[in-house]
Amino acid sequence: MPADQLIGADISLPCEVAEGKPAPTVLWYKDNLSVDLETVNIDQDNTLKITNANKEHSGLYVCKAENSEGSDSLAVELNVRNHSVIVNDPVNVVFEKDSQVTFDCQHEVDSALLGGLQINWFKDGVNLDLIQAPEPPPVIGENILRIEESVSPCDSANPDEDPRLYMLTNASLRICALNQSDIGEYYCVLTTDLELSVTSEISSVLLVTHFPWWIIILVLLLLLILVILICLVCYCKSRKVGKGYYGMDIEDGGRHNKSDIYYTTEDAESIMNEMDNTYTNESQYTQAKTPIFTPKTIRHLARVDKSIGSIGSLLEDDDFLDKGYQEDGSFRERYAE
Predict the structure, then answer these.
(1) Residue 68, CB half-sphere, CA atoms under 13 Å: how many?
(2) Nearest to 202 by CA among 218, 215, 187
(3) What is the pLDDT of residue 133?
(4) Are 100 and 109 in contact (CB under 8 A)?
(5) Spatial strand order in the sheet of 165-167
(6) How many CB atoms lie within 10 A of CB 58?
(7) pLDDT given for residue 137 in this prediction
(8) CA 192: distance to chain centroid?
(9) Following CA atoms 316, 318, 319, 323 in sequence, which dihedral angle do they give, to the nearest 10 degrees?
């Protein structure tokens, strides 16, 4: 009774022995030699067990039961097979309309398993159920028999009537007249008598989309225009609402605001009169007005010719105080409506 197993499998070879009188002795042999108990285990029910089998475990195993009345045996041929492998690397193909594409399914299968080998191709998880491409006829030479180089089935196919997908004799997938419906992921799956499925790595037909750099450029331009508009609006507002000085600095040509403060030596008496008018009604106190003295005026006065003496020296003591000056010569702060 032959038994095929894959490398790495755990194997059990049973040996059922009926009762005998006297009780029989059960022994296991491999290739006519007693089994090596360091590589196998024998249970009490005479089952031989192999853990993590390898090629060296292959051979003819015999279970022999013997007593004084006779003997009986059971032979099992164990074959430890290699795992099937798909060896080709994945391929990514950029979509090009009406071109031909080939995806390989190169595989290595134990020779004893070739009889049950089956290969199928899948696209996006769906079995393609391919048509086998016809094999080229052999060419008989003078003293040898050779196979002519394979011809692509796409060369003679009518794209309007014939199928566009074929499985070649070497299990490769050939796609003729590529179109957008062929974009996707492809892989092959092989099965043997001992293996349910061995799957290849995924190959694909890709539709390359170039990054729309013009969108980024457009967005940057819009942002730049927006920033320029904001700057223009802020500049116009600052020109319209711009601050200046109110009073004697009007001569300078700038904008003026009554909230600014300045100092002046001209018409000081009129300023005092304005100050006195704010207290004409003794029962009411008018809130402090916005000061009209600015540091800019001080700089203006600094440019006055100092050779004529100080301002305080030009006035009598009484006039000095009456005209709006402090005793130390500084200007008294005034408020105007």
Answers:
(1) 3
(2) 187
(3) 76
(4) no
(5) 101-103, 173-175, 165-167, 131-132
(6) 18
(7) 58
(8) 38
(9) 140
The reported pLDDT for the residue numbered 224 is 93
Low-confidence ranges of the chain (pLDDT < 50): 142-149, 243-251, 258-268, 271, 279-290, 293, 307-315, 320-321, 335-337
Cβ neighbours of 97 (radius 10 Å): 9
Flag whether the pTM goes above 0.85: no
Stretch (H or E) spanning 277: helix 268-277
**Residue partners of 165: CB distance under 8 A and separation at least 6:** 121, 128, 130, 131, 173, 174, 175, 176
- Listed residue (76, 72, 80, 70) closest to 31, CA to CA: 76
Q: Which residue, among 278, 297, 298, has the nearest Cα to 287 in the 3D structure?
A: 278
* Per-residue confidence (pLDDT) for residue 314, from 0 to 100: 46
Q: How many residues does the chain have?
A: 337
Radius of gyration of the chain (CA): 54
Read off φ and ψ for residue 118, nearest 5 degrees: -135, 140
Whole-number Å distance between alpha carbons of 165 and 28: 54
Give the model's pLDDT for residue 239: 78
Q: What is d(CA 315, CA 274) in angstroms, rounded to the nearest whole number?
A: 21
DSSP for 197-264, written as a single string: -EEPPPEEEE------HHHHHHHHHHHHHHHHHHHHHHHHHHHHS-----SGGGGGT----TT-B---
Nearest to 298 by CA among 254, 253, 333: 333
- Please tell me the predicted confidence (pLDDT) of residue 251: 47
The CA distance from 220 to 127, in Å, is 48
- Residue 330 has what pLDDT? 58
